[in-house]
Write a structure and sequence with these properties.
Length: 419
Amino acid sequence: MIEKWIIAYQELLVRAGLSENLAIVLENGTVILVTAGLALLADYVIRKIIVASITRIARKSKTHWDDIFVQRRVFNRLAHIAPALIVFYSLQYIFEAPRLVTFLGNVVQSYMVILILLVFDSVINALHEIYNTLPISKGRNIKGYVQVVKILLYFLALILVISIFSGKAPMTLIAGLGAVAAVLLLVFKDTILGFVASIQLSGNKMVSVGDWITMSRYGADGTVIDISLNTVKVQNWDKTISTIPTYAMVSESFSNWKGMEESGGRRIKRSVNIDMKSVSFLTGDQIEKFRKYYVLKDYINQKEKEIEAYNASLDLDMTTVTNGRRMTNLGTFRKYLENYLHNHPQIHDDMTFLVRHLQPTETGLPLEIYVFSKEQEWAKYEAVQADIFDHILAIMPEFDLRVFQNPTGDDFRKLGQAN
């Protein structure tokens, strides 16, 4: 039908007195103008009317998903296919040279393949964004899978473009790639390792966006902000960004503090070294002094009765210090710390709770506090920890205990003045 109209139009120009060559030029020019006009009209109608109407409907709807598809320009990219189709089917009426028509047809088909690829890319991005709004996304990051799907789409699009220009079937080209498979494995080694690692990280719930992790080899100590096919990005507490290869998260060790955050407590594990020469038995005056302490009153009374009963059962001569059991300033101080921490409003009583001695060393006897703070936020946690040890250092002289500390320049100066 279109060919008859073109021939009739050309004959009309010849009858009007134009030469045959000029009539052909005018006929080709008219077809080009009509094709361009139809393409522009189709583009205008689809973008300004259809896509605009879809956008208005999406904004008025109660669901947020359709808004995401609009924001990702899915419909805008899809609209560009219509003008391309008009141009493709008009080429045979514009040019008579078969080779030129074939070449331009291949270019337009390749353009449409790229457009379809971009549409799928936008759809995948939209679906990924929708997934991130769901509760399940908090524990399972699928960005690595999304990137693999995109790589496969790009690869398929490349095969189709090569197939269009070469005239060979896509399956034939894919079969021919077996010869270069080894090269592809080397080129995409990191991508393949990252993909496998992404499956393990997601399947085993080893790490998620928002987790606090530490990985000293890569200088990472902060919050995970992105997990992709090849890298995991961590924003450190000093606001720097550490980039870790995804496969390193599987092949190497790292610490994930998510369990601590979910437990509701954060561990305090710190010790103070006691000068062992300051450890001694309690005197009667000291016992009466400590009996007045609110946190030690019950302990002193109970312990005193227990020791008196034990010593009386053995009928020992208590005038000798080596006979029987006696309370020490260090043991009483340790009990004081236990009761003090039990009464502390920011310390968990239902989690691991220890005040213990460690192995004595040349720097004294370490007295370790092993408890869990209710505060997990870094600054508040450090404030709780500092408050506890401020109190420990300040109260120790009341028990006639000394912190072990290597001599300083001031100590040597005082020693010289004394001599």
